[in-house]
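User: TetR/AcrR family transcriptional regulator, Steroidobacter flavus:
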Amino acid sequence: MSASDKEVTPPAPRRAAKASGGDTKYARKQQAIIAAASEILNRDGVKGMTLANVASRVGLITTSVTYYFRKKEDLAVACFLDAIARVDALVEAAAQEPDPPARVQRLLYLWLQLRYRVVTGDEPPVALFGDMRTLQKPQRTIVGDAYRRFFAKLCALFESPEFGWMTPTLRAARAHILSEQILWGVIWLRRYDPDDFVRVHTRMCDILLHGFAGAGRTWRNVPVALDEMLPEAQQSAAQETFLIAATRLINERGYRGASVEKISERLNVTKGSFYYHHDAKDDLVVACFKRSFDTMRQIQRTVLTRSDDHWEQLTTLAAALFAYQISERGPLLRTSALVALPLSMRQEMIEAYGQVSNRFAGVIADGITAGSIRAVDPMIGAQMFSATLNASAEYRWWVPGATSEQTHELYAKPMLVGLFAE
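Assistant: Predicted structure for TetR/AcrR family transcriptional regulator:
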């Protein structure tokens, strides 16, 4: 049965999920450890999780946890594999629907049900995928292979004779957009009461299936000149180069994987040069976030003064920001890096991100009033727009064969006019 709006009802209370691997004492304790570790991972990242704090959470001593997981990295792998398996099961269930639009709706319905059960305590936490990139080999390879198998199933949701025009490249880009909505959705859903997840499902599906374009508005690939929008960097050329390299490495490897040594190595400078510019690594991450936010604000400011047409503003914002992601000055720092920051720094960066996102919501809301943008939820729309922007920086890994010139068509177009618009 399709997950249409009329059949989506608040999920009934669920029993706690059974431990995987059988209902044995060993399996139950192992699953309790994974659940506790996943909660800590989501709050503190791989960097902040220790066997000691996991042991404390489940009433064990540290050496007892090593009976189940020899190292912290092994436990992190177990958390990520558990998360992938649980979302993978949702994709397999959604694949039973008769056509791609129904599969997308069903997947979001099942995912929001899962989030409901997690938030209400009826199911253990699900580790956030964003911190997977912080793992080193061989753990990174194990988790990466599992995630790629999951992603292949996600791509298959878009296969159908009815959408024969959708090439493997187009399917992969749409699957990437969908996966990023799930990744980032976990963060912004915290603003909503679980009982509102039904409404969230309806509004997310409406945007994914139909986009933002108002009556008579169509997609067009807007040409932009980034140099005209962005002034010269305020910091020195050396500092700018350092921030670009750090942003790229953090996006690729996460906070933990982007060591001072690797950043310095990539730029062929000494570690001393790093500490000349930054007192600590946390300061560097904050500097990268501030640079990204400043870039987004400047592009927003420039675009919004050039036109009073809100649909044109939205399409131009997309064109400029997506172009920046693949430019020599890009990309923007991924929001997944937030989890690595100390709580005091993290809150400041989340608030700064919220201000940037609210401006997207303002454009959407004003466009709805003027009639150039469809009547959608502006706040949810802004978050989904941002998630797609986040995804576009990684097109090389998830959309094989795509070129940088195609990213606007591959990401901005389906987000703005709908996943199934040809």
